[in-house]
Amino acid sequence: MNLSPHSPLPERASRWRWLWVLPRLAFVLFVGGVALLLWMSDQADKEEKRATLTSDMLWLEQNLRFHLTRNEELLGRIDLAHTASAKAFESFARTLFGFESGLRQLIWLDAEGRLRLAHPTTMDPSLAGETGEAVPSRQSFRLARSLGKPVYSSAYPFFTNDWQFEVHVPVSREGQIVGVAVGIYRIRDILGDSVPWWLAERYRISIIGDSGKVLGTRSKIESSVTEEGYQVDFDPPGWGLALHAVPYHAPRPLASVLLSVSLVILAMIVLWSLWILRRHVLRRQAVEEQLQQEHAFRKAMEDSFDTGMRARNLDGEIIYVNPAFCRMVGWSATELIGRRPPMPYWADDYLDETRAIHDRILAGEGPEEGFELKLKRRNGEFIDVLIHEAPLIDAHGHQFGWMGSMVDITERKQAEERARQQQERLQSTARLVAMGEMASSIAHELNQPLAAISSYCTGAANLLRNNAPATDVVPALDKAVDQAQRAGKVIRRIYSLARHSENRFERVLLGAHIDAALSLMEVDIRQKGIRVTLDLAPQAVVDGDPVLLEQALFNLFRNAVESMRDTAPDRREILIVLSCADGYVVLTVADHGCGIDARVADKLFDPLFTTKAEGMGMGLAICRSVVENHRGRLSFEANPEGGTVFRILLPMAPQ
Questions:
Q1: How are the residues of the chain apportioned to helix, strand and coil, as percentages rounded to the nearest 5?
Q2: Which of 118, 306, 435, 615 qualifies as a cystine partner to 107, CB 3.0-4.6 A?
């Protein structure tokens, strides 16, 4: 059970800020790395495609150069002896066309530029003379004859949708130019013969003129093309012609797409995870801060308690004590935590009792209403404590120990003892005061029988002197004996009252003690002419001390008698009603006396307070103390007919 305080809030908040920087920085670096990787991969792919395009175009350019150069050599080696006839020339041309050279027409011009042979015959008006035969470019002819090497003409349209150009190859024998072999290339055909299929599937290859016009195109598939391309001069033809290749837009490889998608999904998952983690951490941080505040609040509250708190696990080992408990027993928390029974604060004289209640608590059989125990301080002083135990439950609903709260009741116990002793002294004082206050009434009771005894004895003596018969003397002696017994009863009552020192509760028939108390005041009641009306319920039985109850009744009756000292003789009446209601015995004493002034009503039951010149102020105080000691209540109110009504309420004795 960890009850130590958490770290301070500013320090923890600073630590959380630093912890949040790391995942954010890592995520930014990760996203940047992914973006950089994708960009580099795309750039590498573009560079690779660019390098492949350059390589392919250089290869194509070299291949076209090879075909054109080979055709120049073949045309320069024409054998005029075997090709003088049209049929032989046609056979040579067909053989030459079969090499996929790109040639579509072959013309033989003599040294003067006259057309001698042609295969096949052209129908282009620009190449036909007056006779309708094909006529090659004169400028290229003259230039080739003068230079003595092959010369290419510029491209020109052939009909409407095709372009072509010529190559003039001078043919010399024994150092003399004997004629010029003219080969006519059709641009569409040369692209079809020289560009392989695999290259046409990658690129759209075109031959562009000097004005940027596309003269011919080779393409195998119909697809969109990219904006980027590669262009190389078409040489040896020259004349501003160029080869231009544009790669087709091919879909990226599936592996690359999957990799890119995986990286994007991974980045999204990382972002989502970071967001979820952030929410969880913030929620956890809020809960921890709330828990820390609640812990600090609880600790401050526990530290301010005067009630000692002590927690034990199921083995009886102390796992927590608060400062109030340490102050109570005198040992520090470091000395107590981890201790097992017997504890250092257990009193040696009550060790067995303490161990027994300890075992009962650990077994779950401790008293639910709490229990009192005597413990020992470190300085050897004994203290009384009131202990309440409650089970400690964890978050899963399992009990893992017991929490006990202890209240030091030593002063309360001492106060109770002092109150008990004071109550005993008060009761003793009450009996003494009652004896003193009853002495005058008892004196009247004793004077009357003693005077009667003296009178009866004197009469009996006189009868005996006069030799009266025994029958006359015996009645007087019997009456003297009755009066002596009456005096003895009065003396025994005084003796019983004087020697009674303890509360001896017993079943008391309250009506009989009302009669006994009234008998003590019989002389005063008779002398003052007071009428006493009784209405006594026979079932009015209470548990109590008969002597103390009789004292209280005597005091009430005496006050009622004394209160009617100045009352008219015809109104001197005391009404005593004893009844039972709702489990209580109710005694009502009503007089027609002087009543109680409202100014002194609040002080009526205070000790030593009296309104009588000869009074001691203890009568009603004793009455109230006796009644409350019997778990009852004494009250008073004004009598509507004049005087005062006192009412005693006492619990009935169980049947």
A1: 50, 25, 25
A2: 118
